[in-house]
Amino acid sequence: AYEPMLVLLVLVGLFGAWGAYHWLSQPRAADEVIAQARARGEFVPYLQPLVCPQSGRWLGAEVLMRWRDGDRVLAPGAFIAEVEQSGSLGAITRDLMAATTSGLSGARLPAGFHLAFNVTASQLADPELVGLCRVLREKLGEAVVPVLELTERETFDLAGHGGQLAELFSLGVELALDDFGTGQSSLSYLSELQVHTLKIDRSFVDAIERDSLGKVVLDAVIALGQSLGLKLVAEGVETAAQRDYLQAAGVDVLQGYYFARPMPLADFVRQLPGHA
Ligand code: C2E
Ligand code: CA
Ligand code: CA
Ligand code: CA
């Protein structure tokens, strides 16, 4: 009398196990959505000018990822964690570099123009990075300096990737430490890597008008950068008072809504000086 019951239980168990296995080996729904959005070209570069404090001239641009879904344009805060989890961040970063390179290839960029991309430490080891930087130099000319802004999201040991880094440096690529002064940026990279630039985090720029401890850290970061002979970029500059303070402190490059917001690549090209 127990037998049909037993057979049924075993069947249910097997079916359940098969279902669980199948479910677990499927790509997650979010990964599918991201892969499809990538295939449709919905991840696009926005550019924000890097500005000379004295003259207001554009010295370069930071490339910032946007997800353009119909009329909606999403900033990375809304989706970058999902992209990272899906394992597509590397591929999307390469797409952004290629799209930016071809989008700027008709533009006349001033000599020494810095073009900065955000990468994680593990992406520095991506063997395709060298080729992308080489194509960028070929298409945009020797006058353009590719910059890789290192944002610390995971700890990654770059020991053993010295060859790749040397290759990048030989192409004229520069490294910047992003969000410097926050926990997102590792001081240890300063001694491990040949860094050219410190990007001072927005939270310290905010502190300028609030006379807080943050201002003490700001002054210390500026002094550190200057004593190491590094270039200093301040991000998140929103007011004239902040600009004045940073300029007087000798910060080399400013970035923020006070000057310009991140904009679609075509708008950036149209606003370049000398654009017909
Ligand atoms: P981040 O690298 O620190 O980039 C600067 C962020 O500050 C950008 O936010 C920019 O739009 C914003 N910003 C610039 N000026 C001002 C200002 O005056 N006021 C304020 N309130 N904000 C300002 P966004 O574009 O939302 O990007 C957020 C973060 O997402 C970036 O921070 C970066 O860590 C990450 N991210 C963006 N694009 C990429 C990418 O292509 N790859 C990777 N791995 N990360 C990216
Ligand atoms: Ca950045
Ligand atoms: Ca930053
Ligand atoms: Ca920041």
From TrEMBL:
Keywords, ordered alphabetically: c-di-GMP, Cell membrane, Hydrolase, Membrane, Transmembrane, Transmembrane helix
Subcellular location as annotated: Cell membrane
A GO molecular-function annotation: cyclic-guanylate-specific phosphodiesterase activity
Reactions accelerated catalytically: 3',3'-c-di-GMP + H2O = 5'-phosphoguanylyl(3'->5')guanosine + H(+)
Chief site of localization: membrane
Annotated signal sequence range: none
Protein name: cyclic-guanylate-specific phosphodiesterase
Source organism (scientific name): Crenobacter intestini
Parent sequence residues shown: 234 to 509 of 509
